[in-house]
Amino acid sequence: MELIIVLAVVAVIAMAVIGVYNGLIQLKNKVDEAWADIDTQLKRRYDLIPNMVEIVKGYAKHESKTLEAVTQARNMAMAAKSPEERIQAENALSGTLKTLFAVAENYPDLKANQNFMDLQATLKEVEDKLQLSRRYHNATVRDFNTKVEIFPNNIVAGIFHFGRRKFFEIENAEERNNVKVSFNE
Fold first, then answer.
1. Confidence band of 40 (pLDDT split at 50, 70, 90)
2. DSSP state of 152
3. Which superfamily does CATH assign the domain made up of 2-168 to?
4. Could you give the 3-state DSSP secondary structure of residue 163?
5. d(CA 185, CA 182)
6. Nearest to 38, CA basis, from 165, 183, 160, 178
7. Which of 96, 102, 90 is closest to 41 using CA atoms?
8. Where does the chain show beta strands of DSSP type E?
């Protein structure tokens, strides 16, 4: 009779561990999927930026520093390897894009150019989808981190090496400010 009780207790514990493990795997996969969604939108953004830069070049020849900064930020973002590097590079790219649009405001002919307007609209759509993807990613990271940290899940998570995931967030507080562009000619 004692053997049956011991086996029942072991079976209940094993089932609980399996349940927690499977829950962690499901949330881990959701976090990975959310990151892939961000990656998809970033790829679309990377494809649009060179076209945007080329159109602006034709109108704003003396804005080469801004255009070079956008191109350099895009290349750094594309080359980022880890999620942490990617987040930092994407935040820098977002800042340079704000500057690019601020520069465009000073060129009425550029603002009226149909190609530029189409690219700007498409980039705005990508940025909106990117924002939604980031929010979804952060929600799944929150759920995953919560599951990893609560008791008794934290014991199972520790055994199977499930660790906290990083949120996609602005790392530099200055990037939250509006871009200021001045032309001192």
1. confident
2. T
3. LemA-like domain (1.20.1440.20)
4. coil
5. 9
6. 165
7. 90
8. none
User: Is the preceding omega at residue 50 within 30 degrees of 0, hence cis?
Assistant: no
pLDDT digits (tens, 9 = 90+) for 41-87: 888 888 888 877 777 777 666 567 777 888 888 888 888 888 888 88
**At 173, which amino acid appears?**
A
Contacts within 8 Å (CB) and 24+ apart, 72-81: 74/46, 74/49, 74/50, 77/42, 77/46, 78/46
pTM more than 0.70: no
Residue type, 22: N
Domain extent listing, the chain = 2-168
C-beta separation of 93 from 130 below 8 A? no
